[in-house]
TrEMBL record:
SUPFAM superfamilies registered for this protein in UniProt: Glycerol-3-phosphate (1)-acyltransferase
GO molecular function terms listed in the Swiss-Prot or TrEMBL record: 1-acylglycerol-3-phosphate O-acyltransferase activity
Upper classification of the organism: Bacteria, Pseudomonadati, Pseudomonadota, Betaproteobacteria, Burkholderiales
InterPro entries (UniProt xref): Plipid/glycerol_acylTrfase (IPR002123)
SMART domains linked: PlsC
Organism per entry: Noviherbaspirillum denitrificans
GO process terms (BP): phosphatidic acid biosynthetic process
A Pfam family per the record: Acyltransferase
Pathway field: Lipid metabolism
Domain Phospholipid/glycerol acyltransferase as annotated: residue spans: 65-177
Protein name: Acyl-phosphate glycerol 3-phosphate acyltransferase
Lineage top rank: taxon: Bacteria
Keywords (A to Z) from UniProt: Acyltransferase, Lipid biosynthesis, Lipid metabolism, Transferase
Length: 251
């Protein structure tokens, strides 16, 4: 059964490669976005993950916003893309991942090298340009994945792009649950775990529900400094996930 599920995922990945290489050059942005969304929905389903969308206080995705989310797994990108296609800022390491790295690059992922100030400035300008063009743009302000039940401090640098582009910040909270509503350990992608190991763990687990909560937008007009925006987004996501600043469930 596991081998069959893995084979189906691999076939789907190769279909994605073929679509990016052969079809994407021939279709417009709207067509590419539709393919990215449909492909992401299928990938998540093939991994045995069901997506559930929640809306806190009836919040809806803003048509133009800088999107931020906590970061648990490589799955986060495709869970969010199953709601609407988005350009992500991701670690440059992902580019070297088998198949997925090339797919991410061809679907508009913006790669950033850790610890390089010049790279941050380049990415920042690219974010502003994309936001002005009306694209959905997202990044993970923790800068890396964290175990579920934990929320790492947010880096504030890239929040400046929302201020310059004059768009709000749209926070999302993502978590992965088992059949009993508890955090599912199979989703954690931390430490020295490789992409392949994570994929196999998720395929073996089954019964995972990805809960994606759309949180109310944060108006950049009310917060003129990137640190204020980062703190407001942190507090909104922390509250939704039910963790305190130490990463532990509040007592």
């Amino acid at each position: 059964m596991l081998a069959f599920r893995l084979l189906r995922v691999l076939i789907h990945l190769f279909r994605g490669l073929a679509t990016c290489a052969l079809l994407f050059p021939l279709i417009d942005d709207a067509g590419r976005r539709a393919h990215v969304r449909a492909w992401s929905v299928r990938l998540v389903a093939l991994c045995g993950v069901r997506v559930r969308i929640e809306h806190l206080q009836d919040a809806q995705p803003a048509p133009r916003a800088l999107m931020v989310s906590n970061h648990v797994s490589w799955l986060d990108i495709f869970v969010i893309n199953s709601l609407h296609p988005t350009r992500f800022v991701a670690k440059s390491d992902i580019r070297s991942w088998p198949l997925i790295g090339w797919l991410c690059e061809k679907t508009g992922t913006i790669f950033i090298a850790r610890g390089k100030l010049r790279d941050v400035r380049r990415i920042y300008q690219g974010l502003v340009t994309s936001l002005h063009a009306g694209e959905h743009v997202a990044f993970f302000p923790e800068g890396t994945t964290a175990p579920q039940g934990t929320l790492l401090p947010f880096h504030a640098n890239l929040f400046e792009a929302a201020i310059e582009a004059d768009v709000p910040v749209q926070p999302y909270a993502v978590r992965y649950l088992d059949a009993n509503g508890r955090l599912h350990p199979a989703a954690d992608f931390v430490g020295e775990m490789t992409f392949v190991q994570s994929m196999m763990t998720i395929l073996k687990a089954g019964g995972v529900t990805a809960e994606l909560t759309v949180l109310p937008i944060i108006d950049t007009g009310e917060s003129s400094h990137r640190r204020e925006l980062a703190d407001a987004a942190y507090d909104a996501i922390r509250s939704s996930l039910g963790v305190d600043t130490a990463g532990n469930p509040p007592g």
